[in-house]
Amino acid sequence: MKKHFPAAAVAVFCAVALAVASTNLPFLDEGTFGGSALNILHTGYSGNPSTPPWGLGLPLEQSTRYNYWVMPLYLYLLAAWYRLTPETLLSARVLSVIFGMVALALFYRLLRRLSATPLVAGLAVLLAAVDFNLIIDASQARMDSLSLALNLGAWVAYLELRDRSTDAAFFWPAMLAGLSFITHPNGIIAFAGIAMLAIALDRGRRTRGWMLFAAGAAIPMIAAASTIVRAPAVWYQQLRAHSQHRFDGFLRPFDSIYWEFMSRYYLPFGGRRLHGSQFAIAHWALLGVLFLYLVATAIVLARFRGRLAKFAGAFFLITVIYFTFFESGKLAFYNIHVIPWLCLFVAIIAVRWRTAGIAMVAAIVIVNLVWSAYYVRANQYGTSYQRVAAMLRENMGPHDLVLTHAFFGYELGFDRVTEDYTLVDIVRRKPLFVVMDHWITVPAENKAYKYGADPIEAGMITEDEKVQSAALLLTRYKVVFRTPDFTVCRRNF
Which residues of the chain have pLDDT under 50? Predict the structure, then answer.
């Protein structure tokens, strides 16, 4: 039974994640990245036709032609995936779920290599497989589940190869870590984990491993650099605009600690991702899950001294320190790198203290599964997003434009959508419809994105255009359709 337990846990994850993927409201990045992937597929260029250079609230030169503000691997993998599958948002989400399944399998293998018993490792995978926040992270069309799988793969590769060849144990894991880095900067965690394992397990060995490590890491970087040669100046401008102040949390340590807890833990478990008053019931139940995670983590880190606890504690602390002090975005999606370790600490407690542990595990599993079922039943994808998309399809001509999120491009065509948080395209392009939500609002922000330069300061838009756009939206557009998540306005001139 223990042999099949991890496979059953991964199967449960697959079923729940696919259900959530088919009913979850689209998120901003899913359209931004999906439009770029489809543009790669059809034109060879990585920009998104829905993304004007000022639209995301920071200046991104030639953003409709080039997407250099995110790492390239996920965009190109998604483009390749679209060669085999329908060009839909749900198809992209399926790819993320597949990477999530791979990550869970690698997590189990990593725990077994770190001396976890089959029961502890299997229980940890089960808890991760049903965790609501991890399921959300792994079922959206973003690169997070791929990033997690590559990080875990790098560590598993090191532990698997070190007894066969020290050289191979440095080269191949470094290549996987490099692939993770060109997926997302969170690949830094993979490099740090390999360094920790090498120092802890192999610091006495004579080896040329660090040279091979550098070579392995360089190969993905060179491949990524090959995408830059078309427009190196654009790459530099976009990367600088997007990364400014993103990794300097250590300059504000106390603020970083506070916002790390609020943004990474309290708010995701307390309801930030839950749109609508009908979801308020989840607030305290999910906070209860967070409380059990934190209690188990504190006990294991303070009282347990075995090999598994030491290495798991080291991986956990590497991840938490990086996110707290060196990643200022505080995006809840990055929880996918933290939650597996929280689940492991609960599993360790559950196996050691059976009675209390069984109650703890049962409570966590029940809350997560019940909430996932409730979330699926709400079906915001069908009851809100698809209703608005259908309304727009029925009322837009072939040359009409809508100002809204890029993910509506899946339904309308990305060239018929402008994702402009500043709203100035109301003046510049006169969209027939404007679809607003809690992201696209009046008055619009100069800097919808809190990092990077201001588009007004960069000379891409003007304050006068923003004033005119807000005035036109309020006087020349009329609300014609509403859902709990969107308000659709139509131009009446």
Answer: 1, 273, 277-278
- Quote the CA–CA distance of 431 and 371 in Å, as a whole number: 38
CB 133 within 8 Å of CB 269:
yes
Q: What are phi and psi of 435, to 5 degrees?
A: -110, 115
**H or E segment to which residue 350 belongs:** helix 339-352
Tracing tokens 């370790």 back to the chain, one arrives at 341
Tokens of 416: 């018929």
Chain centroid offset of residue 153 CA? 18
- Identify which of 414, 393, 421, 400 has the alpha carbon closest to the alpha carbon of residue 40: 414
CA distance 463 to 310: 55
Query: 482 - beta bridge partners?
Result: 487
Mind listing the pLDDT tens digit for each residue in 306-344? 899 999 999 999 999 999 998 888 888 999 999 999 999
CA–CA gap between residue 37 and residue 406 (Å, rounded): 13
Query: Around Cβ 320, how many Cβ atoms within 10 Å?
Result: 16
Determine the Cα–Cα distance for residues 22 and 328; give it in Å rounded to an integer: 31
User: pLDDT tens-digit profile of 34-54?
Assistant: 999 999 999 999 999 999 999
Which one, of 91, 197, 204, 200, lies nearest residue 151 by Cα? Answer: 197
- Do the bridges between strand 402-403 and strand 433-436 make them parallel or antiparallel, or are there none, so unpaired? parallel
3-state percent breakdown (helix, strand, coil) of the chain, nearest 5: 65, 5, 30
d(C-alpha 74, C-alpha 96), whole Å: 10
